[in-house]
Amino acid sequence: MSKPLATIAGVLVIAGMLGGVASGAPATGGRSSAGMAALPDPQPSPLATSLGIEFVKDSTTTVLLERDGKRYVVDLAARTVREAQPLAAAHASSAAAGPAAAADRKDPPDGAGIFKSNCTMCHGPDGKGIAAMKTPDFTDPKVQASLTDQQMIDIITNGKKGTAMPSWRDKLSEQDIRAVQAYVRSLGAAKPPQASALVPSHESAKSKIYQPGDDRLFTLPTGRRLDRHGMYVNFTHRFAYDPAFSGTARGGALLGLDGVSISSFGLAYGVTDKLSVSIYRAPTLIGRPIEMMAAYNLLDEHDGKPLNAAIRVSLDGLNDFDRMFSENIEGVFSKSINLHPVKAQLYFVPTVSFNDRRLFSPPSYETSSFPSLPGYNAVSLGIGGAIDIRPTAALIAEVIPTVYNGRPLGIHRPAYAFGIQKKIWRHAFTFGFSNSPGTTVSQRAGTDASYLGAPSADTPSGLFIGFDLTRQVH
Ligand code: HEC
Among 122, 138, 147, 152, which residue has the most ligand 1 atoms within 8 Å of its CB, making it the best to mutate? Predict the structure, then answer.
């Protein structure tokens, strides 16, 4: 590409103009960065503009010259003149746009910006190619697969012989070329915008894997993996005093939503992509438990495993972690099933709670005079399922039978719940019906029968409303 243009009078003009500078700092510095910061930003002077001359930011040795619609890089140190850009590109980025893009941009190199100002005139604004230019569609996976990163860098650096693809060696720095190459590569990964906005992030990529919207199904854990350094908030509300469907005028009381809710709140944090910790508190109405937990994800379908498996250990203490402690170990197993076109997930959660206490309802909101209850070691086997009925909506159901020591805990029938979940990016809302007011590990298998002291309170007519909210805040 390099052309000796010493006969062009313009070069002599430049050489003359720059003579003072060039001879004052003879060719020794080349393009080294020493002292560059002290250079003033290029100021287009009317004379330079009329002569088609452009100074290059941070360079003591290079100027750009425009002649007859072509642009040339004049390197005074190397005493060479090269064509900077072919005609088509030169027109599009035009002298009126001011200094060359390489000199114009901010640090760090912005691949998208470099592409926009240098490549779109031939490759299209979205990189999809322009038929008349015979440029390829960079969003096509086949085009992406046909070139390695290094091959792309080589083509961008050296151009492609016999085609209109120019060399950018003199126009863009090595970092710029890497940045614009990374941007070209990223065009291949672009998803349809609405899919990435609404569906939880891993879902579109790993299409067969079900993505739970919450850490809970309704009360049962989903065991979903938390993001490393992700912070999550979890709210649960259980309107356990007001059956939704039995009694008078339930419509007027909004199926129990007008009643008193047991409102609990927790925070979870992903320490690594496998280990997470959480703290969770339920109110005085259910004995004021605080639960501390650590969870570890052993297997994940996203890693190509046949199922998800997590282990969770937790300690619950009533009266704000003061007394009547229960220690819990849970295994959380789940498996996605692809019932094309819908996706679903099944859950199995065996739980051992040491020193579990029966549920009780304290006499008032503010009391600390809780009864002293004996502890029993209990075992429950939670089973659940979730099925996506829309891309962002799921039906969920769970049942948590206590298979060992249910009687002394006042559990006559298994705790169960069903509901509907709306999942939006990093956020989920689940509305459902349940017979269990408890939301900590040790309390969740209990039912309204022991909580309200009414053995029939956990029959279907005693079902009450609850909802869960989760949000990944970081
Ligand atoms: C003057 C028009 C023009 C400009 C400006 C241009 N290209 Fe190209 N580019 C082409 C053409 C034409 C081809 C197709 C060459 C061929 O036939 O394979 C091409 C090919 C490529 C290829 C290789 C694709 C393949 O499948 O072989 C890459 C990568 C590329 N260009 C990146 C860039 C980048 C990055 C820029 C901006 C810094 C840019 N191009 C600017 C015309 C241009």
Answer: 122
